[in-house]
Amino acid sequence: MEIIGILGAGAMGSGIAQVAASCGHEVVVCDNLTPALSKAGKRIQATLKTLVEKGKMTDGDAYSLFSRIRFTDHTSDFRDCTLVIEAIVEDIEQKQIAFKSIEAIVGPETIIASNTSSLSVSAMGAQMQHPERIMGIHFFNPAPLMRLVEIIPALQTEARFVEKARKLINCWGKTTVIAKDTPGFIVNRVARPYYGEALRMLDEGIADAATIDWAMRDLGGFRMGPFELMDFIGNDINYTVTETVFTSFYYDPRYKPSFTQKRLVDAHYFGQKTGRGFYDYREGAVKPEPTKDQALGKQILTRILCMLINEAADALYLRIATRDDIDLAMTQGVNYPKGLLAWADDLGIENIVSQLDWLHAEYCDDRYRCCRLLRIMAREKRTFY
Q1: Cβ neighbours around 360 below 10 Å, total
Q2: Is the separation of the CB atoms in 254 and 367 below 8 Å?
Q3: Crossing angle, helix 349-363 and helix 372-380, to 10 degrees?
Q4: Are 357 and 366 in contact (CB under 8 A)?
Q5: Rounded CA separation 237/49 (Å)
């Protein structure tokens, strides 16, 4: 059984370690902060205890799983690993340093991967001696529960390493999709309008957060409304991803961050983890009631959904991923009720183009420009499926 290395003992690193160990692998978790290693061990043990209490595994299975994970503060312990996944802070320079450090230790056939959610994998490998075995392997949080994993080959990556990594991750019970090395890959790129357009409508006074959440949840079938989801993810994290994608796309207005969310971040109103965000989670706080106006709710849902579909179509048009991988990524990566391209067929592509053209004319804002693929398909009366 192959040995798997994890650099970074945070929530994501420990989650990936648990996934690999549950599939029988020996796992080496490395972090230069001893308290982080201790916390990671306790986090995994607590998760396993919960699984035992729910009857999903035995005490013996939990003990065996945890015994396969070794915690260390020496990267030299990665020496015998066949795959090392970096899961440290989202900083390109630190990741480049980490990649070079790992390369100096492991063998020539070891895959070196990053769990980055939006940074350039090609840039991470630029200073390496053998960048042909580097790639992005992006798990979603919490890694043990979320099935989707995005695999992102860098410009330098050889196909044989991509196939080897995909086969391995599939054996872990995950669903893999292949994405081009562009900002946000599939999910964090295509999902941006779910937050951005909701924030724009909030700023305009079209509806409050509770009403927008109600429309997307009750009328659209999404598990969480955009403001609930931002508070759950953490406004600090969500805003940073938006800002990273916006900057990486040379300030394309489609990804423009919101001052409203930035002020919440400035005030450390990160959401559930700090007790305040778009909603107040403190003891005794009362959650505001939505305005359950069906016409308003449909307007909100249509506007956000058309923007999401436009982004998904653009990702397909620019060959970021295949049609099937885009829809799979959005249903399994962020639990959308339906694949966006399949949803486009249901709504009618001509209707989506008309809505986008109306928004573009009304706002004179390039964020509402219609993807050329949608326009071609509407003209030729084609569908995605």
Answers
A1: 15
A2: yes
A3: 130
A4: no
A5: 28
Whole-angstrom distance, CA of residue 251 vs CA of residue 267: 25
Report which of 314, 124, 284, 292 is spatially closest to residue 219, judged by C-alpha positions. 292
**DSSP SS3 for 256:** coil
Rg (C-alpha) for the chain, rounded Å, is 22
Please enumerate in sequence order all residues whose Cβ is within 8 A of that of 268, keeping only pairs 6 or more positions apart, or say none.
Answer: 274
Contact indicator for 313, 231 with CB cutoff of 8 Å:
no
Report the alpha-carbon distance of residue 266 to residue 326 in Å, rounded. Answer: 34
CB 75 within 8 A of CB 105: yes
Domain locations along the chain: 3-178, 189-380
Distance CA 211, CA 207 (A): 6
Instruction: Dump pLDDT digits (tens) for 36-77.
Output: 999 999 999 999 999 999 999 999 999 999 999 999 999 999
pLDDT digits (tens, 9 = 90+) for 315-350: 999 999 999 999 999 999 999 999 999 999 999 999
Question: CATH assignment of 3-178?
Answer: 3.40.50.720
Alpha carbons 308 and 243: distance in angstroms, whole number: 18
Please identify every residue annotated as catalytic.
117, 138, 150, 188
3-state secondary structure of 32: coil
We find that the CATH architecture of domain 189-380 is Orthogonal Bundle (1.10)
Cα–Cα distance for residue pair 355/346, rounded to 1 Å: 15
For 293-319, write each residue's pLDDT tens digit.
999 999 999 999 999 999 999 999 999
How is 280-347 classified by DSSP, letter by letter?
B-STT--PPPP---HHHHHHHHHHHHHHHHHHHHHHHHTTSS-HHHHHHHHHHHS--SS-HHHHHHHH
CA distances (Å), 183 to each of 64, 71, 193, 272, 360, in order?
A: 39, 32, 15, 27, 24
State which amino acid sits at residue 161: F
